[in-house]
Amino acid sequence: MPISLEVVLDPIRGNLMERSNQDFWLWQATSGRLYAIVAGPPCERGRWQGGGDTTLTTKGPRPLRTQQEVWGLSVVKLRELRQILTGNCLLHLALLMAVAQMVAGNLAFIEHPSEGEEKPQGKPPCIWKLKAMQIMLAHERMGLFHLHQGLFGAVSPKPTTLLICCDPSMRTHIENCMIKEQATSQMPKPLAMRRTETGYSTAPLKRYPEGFCKALASGIRHGCDHFVPNTTDEDEISDIAFDFQNAYKCTHESIHDVTIIFVPSDHSPHHTKLDAIGCADFYAQ
What we know:
The protein is an alpha/beta fold and 285 residues long. Helix content is 34%, strand content 14%. It starts with 18 loop residues before the first helix and ends with a helix.
């Protein structure tokens, strides 16, 4: 049964900034109860500069991150700080959920803008270069898939990258299933950033086009029809937890401490549990 988690649909159970909700879904994932998850950490307010299909001008919102300050500028307004903290928390949760799905042997898709092109002011930051992401990509079940949502019905090219967690034997087949759902072979023109009566001209890009939704569903369906049991062992899981711990605490990549712990659990396929200590507590302050 598909479940959509969104604060506008349910301000209580759909609020993934709440520690109790984070714990609940991390527990469901590590227990093997979620066959597949799709996460798209928010990009509003110029948080992460994407794949270069929009023209940012002085009319648009100012970027809140740089390559040097990937987790947020050091000097921001209170409203901007709230947005940065929200984005950081939800991104961390998405990464943890992907790892939990990997541990359980199930599917995960994390969608985010592709790495941007070099600009006069430097290359924009992106999540795909984060140390934690590099650790995840070292595992055979993790891989990146690049596409343009413009070929799936979006009003601009919108270069997009998907982190896909699946068995290596299924990866190419899942990607091919998604490509078959392309709605057109004609790439739309870039969409210029400008103000409108309701906000910004790029607002429609926040919604997935129908073709992209079909592509995700098709990939998940293929994974369901060709399920491959997980072969990740206990030692490898412990190594992943240790590497994640070092990524957050030793590289100054994050603005707070996150502890990732694997402890015995009778309900998990690998007798493990994934927990994020401090994440929600920090953002609730």
